[in-house]
Amino acid sequence: MRVVELKIEDIAFGGKGVGREQGKAIFVPYTIEGELVSAEIVREKKQFAEAELVEVKESSPHRVTPECPYFAQCGGCAYQHIGYEHQLAIKWRQVRNVLQRIGKLKDIPLRPIIPSPKQYGYRNRITVHAQDGVIGFFRRDSHRLIDIERCPISCDEVNRELRDLRGRNARDGHYTLRTSSSPRVFSQTNDEVADTLRGLIADLIPPDQDLLVDAYCGAGFFAKALLNRFERVIGIDWDKFAIAAAKKDATEKETYIAGDVEEELQKVGAVHPNRPPVNDIDPGRLRSTAPTTILVDPPATGLSANLRRSILDLAPATLIYVSCNPATLARDLKELQEKFTISSVTAFDMFPQTAEIEAVAHLQAMPSAS
Questions:
Q1: pLDDT band, residue 186 (cuts 50/70/90)
Q2: Are strands 230-237 and 254-258 parallel, antiparallel or unpaired?
Q3: Could you tell me the pTM of the whole model?
Q4: 29 near 6, Cβ under 8 Å?
Q5: E strands along the chain, which residues?
Q6: N or C: which terminus of the chain carries fewer CB neighbours within 10 A?
Q7: How far is CA 39 from the centre of its chain?
Q8: How far apart are CA 103 and CA 123, in angstroms?
């Protein structure tokens, strides 16, 4: 393979630096914009190429020494070579760019990115793999494992779990290691940032609202924090274990439904005044009046076309969209603008040292749509 010399112009969504050779984009991991590097082409396509870093010839002032001995081998982190303030600047810019490029959004009300209080030691759970005596994570761009003694972005309690696992004869398989306080259903991984995220959402919603529908509600992380804002809260999630956890301490205000979000949202409006007992409700008995607020926190694939259409049909006064993938968020916002105005978009650094970005969009129904 040939080696090229490149000036890195930008950092693409996903974390790789972008340089150009005769106009063709070449993606190089572990670089920073402004750097002059030499890189070896490893895959070449018609429109772009991928390369591995050989040498940094002119270094960025934002380059720092990674804290993890496995960095650049493990596939988890992409940014440990970049100072934290600049990581935040890169992620904010990536959110803006993807909203403009994919969402065709102009004049985006993009707020400053919310940083993580902890740059390392923030993860409350990890999943490691064991095979043939090796316990760790997958190597970058492969299914081969790298043996990990300690993960610097994980908290001390999780690393103790890892040490204990390594100390016994673990069978081949997958192991989720978590803090004692971390729930065993899907939940946010960075407790401090998750609390800030939940607080922002609470601030976005005015008091004395009628009905909140929390789609992809999990165990009720957002819904339960918003109870004092609504007369009724309905949570929907496909995960029956998460719904069971949400029901455990549910108040009379709360109804949780295990089912397909797309199907259930089409049934959900306001609850009939003569409703059956809480948590024993028949979704088919819900009227079709639109909810006051819909909150969605979908997987990385975003909202399906049918779900986007259901939300447009319901046209709630407020729509809160929590996204772990700015690209699908941008795609969905492009269509939702049909009946909603985007009031704000806020990026959160839920996963420092990685290329992952969380974002929250606050949308309000246009007067003619509500």
A1: low
A2: parallel
A3: 0.90
A4: no
A5: 3-7, 10-11, 17-21, 24-28, 36-44, 48-58, 125-131, 134-138, 145-147, 173-178, 209-215, 230-237, 254-258, 293-296, 318-323, 340-348, 358-365
A6: N
A7: 31
A8: 31
Q: Which of 254, 284, 247, 252 is nearest to 269 (CA)?
A: 284
Distance CA 243, CA 237 (A): 7
Catalytic residues: 324
pLDDT recorded at residue 319: 96
The predicted model gives 86-98 an average pLDDT of 97
**The token pair that represents 138 in the structure block:** 């997958």
Beta-strand runs (E) in 90-161: 125-131, 134-138, 145-147
Token pair listed for 354: 């990685």
Rounded-to-integer distance, Cα 330 and Cα 364, Å: 16
> Six-digit token pair at 147?
């043996």
Nearest Cα to Cα of residue 356 among 83, 140, 121, 95: 95
Residue 274: pLDDT band with limits 50, 70, 90: very low
What SS3 state is found at 176? strand
Radius of gyration over alpha carbons of the chain, in Å?
A: 23
